[in-house]
Amino acid sequence: MTQTPSIVKTAIDAIRMLALDAVEQARSGHPGMPMGMAPAAYLLWTEFLKHNPQDPTWPARDRFVLSAGHGSMLLYALLHLSGYDLSMEEIRRFRQWGSKTPGHPEYGHTVGVETTTGPLGQGLATAVGMAMAERMLAAEFGELVEHYTYVVASDGDLMEGVSGEASSLAGHLRLGKLIVLYDDNQVSIDGSTELAFTEDVALRYEAYGWHVVRGVSGEDLEALRAALRAAQADPRPSLIAVRSVIGYGSPLAGHHKAHSDPMGSEKVAATRQALGWPYPPFVIPEEVYAHYRQAATRGVQAYAAWQAKLEAHPKAAEFRRRLEGRLPQGWADHLPRFAPGERLATRAASGKVLEKLVPQIPELVGGSADLTPSNNTRTPDMSDFSSTNPAGRYVRYGVREHAMGAAMNGLALSKALRPYGGTFLVFSDYMRPAIRLAALMGVPTIFVFTHDSIAVGEDGPTHQPIEHLMSLRAIPNLWVIRPADANETAVAWKMALARRDGPTALILTRQVLPVLAEVQPEGVERGGYVLSEAAQAQAAIVATGSEVALALEAQQLLREEGLAVRVVSLPCWEAFQAQPAAYRQEVLPPGLPTLALEAGATLGWERYAQRVLGLDRFGASAPLAEVYSRLGFTKERVVAEVKALLGV
């Protein structure tokens, strides 16, 4: 495309001024990064990025991830100028209620936003998952999915531990189509990076196994162009250190106050003068729009060619099925059934479920944070995904829970893969930002958490989760399922895989549990049900997971003492709350005295019960039977609690 220096400068300055004007009007936002990275972003979007504003979800599009999500106006300006459905009115309403231009980019809310970013490091780590998805899917579908993943990352992104974990993994996997533009402006909110961040970032990334281009001026388009071409040609992931100037063109250029403060009318006017920008706020000359739209025609042409390839592709029907979120017909018929009387841990039952489902659902991609034998997440049909085996369906994440959570979100955002990954429940804390973002984005990532209670035993309180169930239940749009036995576990997997609008956490035991004769699959899917009824019940015990069997034992003791008690299994609060009120009141009648039983924090159970037998202290290191006994999880203690509830 023929370009003249004047139109290029105007096109770059259009990004700067849209960002500055939007922040000024909102009296809130981050103008500095968009102003500094405008030339690099302009070059990427007009010469390198393969995209089609007419179909923002085109599977073969290049992905652009603004990991430095605070600089959201950089992305909004690019989307608006390039012809996406993001009007100038929405730009003017930056950071306002109901606008399509929130303070940080939100997936599913604004067209063209590939992933929700803002918590620093998460965007880069999610982009690693996107690059993994491209490698996996290209091994299966070839040109239908081949693309680059480009990231703009800040100093803050590279300070966060999650980016280090993910970058280490990316280097190990040699994800050559992952290219990071590092906004090396040497400024953060507090001031110069000399205050806290003086490492040699480029050297660190070379040690990760990345291709690194150092010291590229943020204003030198030729140098940026050469760096991007070199990155595209290298088989390793690439980091391009862009030495930009935060707040370029403004009186605050290079100063940390340009990071996140509106500049005020005088400084905005001075910036207009310095850049030679004669236009009023939110006015863009038509030739700039034409320039960006002309650049976008490359993607439109590539899209047309791709459509022809899709029609001729032998796996077109399979590809469409996955993108539409439809699982293979009859997949649930393969769920195993377990015979009452068997005894096995729910983590083991989960592994047996996967053995049946993995061959039936080719989009299932598993993994573990170096706990594969403990999590039971790898089946005999799976091979390891690696730089030499891109068709592998099992990811060895290493001891990198932060990165695993974010990368799984990136895999899920492909829409053609269904990722799950395992670790211990206590380490869900390491994954919490990614879990929260999965819930916020509404992507169906499946988090497998084993070793779910004080029954971890000898490993002690560092590995015995207490507050974790309730803290996960506090996340909106996350389903937390703690099955009581092997058959409830099979249904839990059915629920997780059938879900398309949000993530699921499966909470599984290490210790063996009895397979219960009373389990009702339909009740499990509704989140809760009467597992064992009692005629003219005087009270109810509501329990989850391993404590359901304990509730049944206590029910029998109470029956022998002439007390009739109903036992309710409540594996998934979120599914239960979605049921009609009449059903919920039928399972847990408001007037029926109820004891909640769960080996974890009691906070929250007041929703369902008047009395709780739980745990509001840390555990202890000892054999599991002794830990349960000393901490009060015995059938005799449950009986005593029910009697106290009834006043008998």
Q: What is the rounded distance between the termini?
A: 86 Å
Average pLDDT: 96
Helix content: 40-55%
Supply the number of structural domains: 3
Q: How many separate helices?
A: 24
Task: Please identify the structural class as seen in this structure.
Answer: alpha/beta
Strand percentage, roughly? 5-15%
> Which architecture of the largest domain per CATH?
3-Layer(aba) Sandwich
Brief account:
With 648 residues, the chain is of the alpha/beta class.
Keywords:
648 residues, alpha/beta, Rossmann fold, 5-stranded parallel beta sheet
Structural commentary:
The protein is built from 24 helices and 20 strands. It is 42% helix and 13% strand. The strands form 5 sheets. Strands 10-9-11-12-14-13 form a 6-stranded parallel sheet, sandwiched between helices. It is of the alpha/beta class. Helix 2 packs across helix 9. The chain has 3 domains: 301 residues, Thiamin diphosphate (ThDP)-binding fold, Pyr/PP domains (Rossmann fold, 3-Layer(aba) Sandwich), CATH 3.40.50; 184 residues, Thiamin diphosphate (ThDP)-binding fold, Pyr/PP domains (Rossmann fold, 3-Layer(aba) Sandwich), CATH 3.40.50.970; 120 residues, 3-Layer(aba) Sandwich (Rossmann fold), CATH 3.40.50. Strand 6, helix 9 and strand 7 form a beta-alpha-beta unit.
